[in-house]
Structures are given as C-alpha cells and as structure tokens.
Amino acid sequence: MAEPGPGRLWRPVVYGRTLRADSWWRVRSEGADGRWLEGTVLDAVASGAGLADGPRFVLAQGGRARLVGVACRTREISGSMHEAGGRELYCFVGWVRDGRTGGPAFADLRESWRAWAGEVYERAMAPVWAATPFEAQRTDPGSPVPAPWPERPAPAAGAAPPAPPVAVPPEDWAELWDRARAAREDGAVVLGWSTARAAHRTAGSVRLGVRDPDAPRLVAAQPTGRPPFPVAAATVALLVLVLVLGGALALSGRGGTRRPAPPPPASASPPPSPAPPSSTALALALAKGAQVVVGTGRKGSFLDYDGAKVASGEDTVGTALPEGTPATRQACAAALATAAGALAPRPAAPGPALCVALGGQTAGITIERADPGRTLHVKIVFWPGWTRSGE
Amino acid sequence: MREKDEATIAVLGAPRSGKTTYQLALLAGMTAVGGRFSLHAHHEDGVDMFGRWQAIVDGGQVDVTDAAPVRRVFTFSRGLVPLTDVRWTDFRGGALDTKGGPGGASDTAELYEELARADCVFVMLSGEHFRRPAGRRPGAELLGETRAHQISRLITMTCTRRHEAALPLPALALLVTKADLVDWEERAVGDVVEELRTLLPVAFGAGTRTAVCRVSAGPLNGTGQGPAQRGSAAPSGVHLPLLFALAEHYRTRAIRLEERLAASALRQEQIGRELAELSPRSRWPRDRRHGDLQQELARIGRERAGDRAWADRHRAERRALLPALKAVAMFQDGRPVASGEQEDG
C-alpha cells in the first residue's frame, strides 16, 4: 500500500482526564498555535455541558492550522475508560494539521466518528489510565497519523464563503460543514449544541449548529405574519459577524492585542425572495482583542475591545445614548444624525447604550457584563439601512 | 440603583473535596436562608446552577470540572438591597498539581492570579479525612490526599507577596466539607481544629484571620463519593464561610478607607497652609496657584465624602453580619477570638 502523502497526515489531539489524575491534556500537538488550540477545544467541550445529549463536531481554522474533532461523553467511544470515582467523563478527540484544507465530509464523520475517535482515545489513554497524578502530568506531543476518513472532494474554493446566521438547525449542518471545509479564512464550526442558549453562552465560534430546531434562534425578529426566512436568503441579506483570531476565544479569555486583517466581505447580492428582516439581534461574548466587523465590502469595525476599552473603527460613525435610553432604531437614528465621527475609546463596562453605523448598517450595542481584562458580554441589534441627513 | 462593591473569593481544594458541589449548595441554601441575606447568580448562570443542583436533588452528582475554569459573579444582598458582587471561579482540583508558569497549565496560572487578588481564600478539606483522629502528625497519605503541601505553599506565597506590597492579607476560611460524614458528638470541633493546625500551620500564623466552618450539602449517599440518594440534599452551614468572607472584606475595606481619609485630611491641612502662605505679590502666578489648590481641595472634598460614605457603609454591613457568625470558630494570629471581639478588629 502506498504511504499516505503529507497532506494526509494529521497529529492527534486528546483532551480528557484519567482515572486517578485530574489533568486533562493527554495528547497535544506542539505545531499549532497553543492558545488557539486550547481555546477552541475548551470552547467546544464547554466543561461537558450538553454532551449527555450528544456529541459536538468541530472544524476550525486558526492561522496555519486546521482542526477536526469531536467533543463527547467518553462512554460513546470507550467501553472501559469512561468513568472516574463514579462520575461519567467527557473528552475531546481530534486531529490537527498545518494548512487550510482537509477534513472529512460530514456524512462520513457522522457515520464513523465513534470508531475514529475511539481508536485515538484508546491508544492515548490506555498507557496512563491508572497512572498516579504525578505520572499523568506529562502531555504527549503526538505523532502524525494518516487521516482515518476517506478523501472526498470539497466544494470548489471559489464558492461563496459560508455566511450563515450564528445558529443553524440540523438540516443545514452538512452544507455548513462542507462549505467550511472548502473555506480558507479563520473561524470555527461547532455542530451539536442542544439549544441556542447553550450555544450563545459559549459563542467563541462563528457558526453554531443547534440540535433543537424549535429553540429560539440567535438571529431574531422576523416581521410579523411572515414565514421564517430560508437559511440561504437570510444569510446573504444579514451581516457576517467575525470574531477575529484571538478574539474568538471568549471562554478562555485569551486573545492578543494583535488584530489581523478582517476576512473578505460576504457577497452583497440581494436575495431573490423575501425582504430582509427588520432587525437582527445577537448576543456575543468578546475576548480581549476581538473585533465585530461587518461584511459590507467596506473597511471598518463596529466595535473593538482591547480588554479594557471599546471603540469603533475610524470609518464608523458612533455615539453613546443618554444614560437609561435603550438602543432602539429610532433612538440610534436620532443620535447618529448628529454624531461627530467614530466612537472614541471608552471603558468597556455596562453603561449608556452605544449606536454605530457603517456602510448602510446601523447597530445598537448594549454592554451587559464585563469581566475586566477578559470577556465582554454584549448584545447587538442590527438594522439595515441608514443615511445621515445631508449625505 | 445603589452602587455595589466587589469581592473576590479564591477556592483551593484537592480533587473530590467538594468545591463544585459546595458552590451549588451555597446558591441553593442562600435562597432558603429566610430573606435576611441572599445570594443570586447572574443571568443564565443562575438557571444553569439551579439545574445542576436539581440534578443532585434528584439523585445525581456534579460533572467533573475540567481545565476550563468556570467564572461566575454572584450578588450578595441584605434584605432587598444588593450590596456586593462576589467573583468566584471554580477550578479543577488538579490545578494544584501542575505548574502555572511558562509551559505550565493555563488554568493553574489563572488560579494564581485569583489568589493574588482574593479577599478571602476558601480551603476545602473533605470531612472524610476527619472521621477519625489523625494523630499528632498528619501522615503522608493525609497530606497527599488533602494537597495540604500545595495549599500551604500557595497561601504562603500569596501572603508573602501581599506583605511585601503592603497589601492586606486575604482572610482564610477552612471548610470541612461533607461535614455530615463526621460524628460531631464523638469528634470535638476543637480536636479537628488542632488537626487543622498541624495540617495547615500557615492558616494560623501571624497576621492571619481564619475561620473554621463545617459545611454539608446533605447526607447525599453517606460515603462522600458517588451519586446522591434522591431527596438527601439538604444544605447545612453553607452560608457561614461566605458571611465570614464578606465580614472580613468589609472590615479590610473600612480600614483602608480610614487610612485614605487620614492621608487626605493631612493633604487638606497642607493645602490650607499653602493657601495662607501664598504671596500677595506676583498676582498672576498667585491667582493661578490659588485656583489649582482650590480645585484640588474640592476634589479631595468629594473623594473624602465618598470614602466616608463607603467606610460607614462597610462598617454597618459588617456589624449586620457578625451575629450570624457567633457560632463560627474564628482565629486571629492563630488565637481563638469571639465574633464580637472582631468588631473593632
């Protein structure tokens, strides 16, 4: 049999504790950005929340590295090493490689994830399962292994970049995953959250697959009496929110001060069917270094967070509302009409609501909670279309 | 809305010492104290935590805590008045076993940061270890299972750094968790305190203010491990460590505010003297300096008003807590003190 080419070699990642040791990183690649890898895995695992309902599948791109994996209850992949002190365990098993391509087709992953992850887990865990806490401290860097999944052609790289709403129902998971497989920009897909609320609370990912199709979507506010928008139409008309590298790690609080260039904007083609919704509401957890950018084709950001202050990009018009005034469309329109320019740096703390506008999109921002130096919890409501008087 | 201040609690404890269960029991227990004091989690945290507590009530147990610290902020209220936001991060017990520096575990590093800013450190020691007398010296097994060495090292490190920076030391609460496992008629509290002295001598050293609290989430399953029996959850004493931590927090803050008030009073006197000595000649420089000094006086006046209000409030809130702490074993510099003696502490 021919040796697998370098493109088919991946390094395993195993996160899970042992019988006796409360240490969790069993196999961890030294090649990928350690902070990005750790943050992505911890976000997906979410301390085990919801894994009793089913696994979560991860496809993430961070800088030069691509990660594929699954967070699950360990019982799903191991018949013997899944419990410690009478408590069920959970884990993450995955594969990481350098590059911006590769990964299984979603259909293959869904069919075979137990076998693939189980083999990696057993190999990593068996030698240390009964080790003492001292013996189990060492983390194995892992050796490259051939990908367990069959090669399948990804959608052509020239296809429109995936720009879904933040929460995606199960019927769209396969398309979402396969488009992400073809994409090149940084970001993460995590499929398998039980509810939109659970996904929202660990919103370190751009695209979140929600198992309960009846749970309220994070994309809100359909016009009264109109049917729900089809996913494809809604995604093109709505905004692309991107938590840039470092800013995507909301749970861990990690994130540097470096701000990579925002990704290419989403297509601005108008949808063929129903008009866009009148507003879109999102709740986000921003880590230090995060930017909220808009895929309008113009440069600029709605909100930048450096761990202590928030501000907007210099092309954005922004202002604060009077204390106690909620960020409604009317209030923001009136305030922005006389705004002098960009939102100047101000403390990242709950206070007056903010209004920002850029490239035909207006947003009201409410800071709900701030963990100093770490995570900023904000609610953002977007309204399409804004012109300042005189423009 | 009345302004709240903020306190930080750092928790140290070996794996399976009950850190997570205690936090859930505290939240559940504080809503049942009877209205005098209450504790509420923020936003969805409250829903999540009550759900997890209900799972225990229904005959389950908490999930293991992994390497992602769980950060929460609770609001402590007296009656209907919210007073203090309490920052509390739940770490896995294994964070004590790993390094926190370069190349170490990131949650261990975060634990060190929490210790550096903590107003109170909770040390969780499972009652399983105190069912029988330990003897004159704690054995290696007890030291290992309780992580007493690691905990002592971290407390010593924290206190040393605070002392060097002329910052107040954190209060220490030693929680005997799963206290329902101990037959307290057979084992006197005093005997257990003496065992704690030999296990963690740093908690009874010079400059320390320490409480020993017995806490229980209920008999659960009678062994200290494994799922609870349905209906066995019954929090007991869980509120006492928190009330102690807040009483100490208010005391420390009031002391620091008094120090600041004394310093600002001195500065006021200084400014007063300088104003009186301003030369009547050279009118323009005199007027400018006069203006600057008046502005500084006004600013100091505003700050003093704020500091005085906060100091008075902290003292009042501390007085309101002390009656609830009468039965708690408390120590200053290792010597027992009654809660009333702590009034002017």
UniProtKB/TrEMBL annotation, chain A:
<feature type="region of interest" description="Disordered">
    <location>
        <begin position="134"/>
        <end position="165"/>
    </location>
</feature>
<feature type="transmembrane region" description="Helical">
    <location>
        <begin position="229"/>
        <end position="251"/>
    </location>
</feature>
<keyword id="KW-0472">Membrane</keyword>
<feature type="compositionally biased region" description="Pro residues">
    <location>
        <begin position="260"/>
        <end position="277"/>
    </location>
</feature>
<keyword id="KW-0812">Transmembrane</keyword>
<feature type="compositionally biased region" description="Pro residues">
    <location>
        <begin position="143"/>
        <end position="153"/>
    </location>
</feature>
<feature type="region of interest" description="Disordered">
    <location>
        <begin position="252"/>
        <end position="280"/>
    </location>
</feature>
<protein>
    <submittedName>
        <fullName>Uncharacterized protein</fullName>
    </submittedName>
</protein>
<keyword id="KW-1133">Transmembrane helix</keyword>
From TrEMBL, chain B:
<protein>
    <recommendedName>
        <fullName>GTPase domain-containing protein</fullName>
    </recommendedName>
</protein>
<dbReference type="InterPro" id="IPR027417">
    <property type="entry name" value="P-loop_NTPase"/>
</dbReference>
